[in-house]
Amino acid sequence: MSKKKKQYTAEQTKQYEARYKKQSFKQSEGEKYEWVDITFYMMDHKSFKELSVYATKLYLYMRQWAYRNEEWKKTGIFPYAQSMMSRLGIMSISQTKRALNELWEKGFLDKHEYGVGGVARWSFSNRWYIGGKQEF
Question: Which of 51, 85, 94, 109 would bridge with 55, disulfide CB 3.0–4.6 Å?
Answer without folding.
Answer: 51
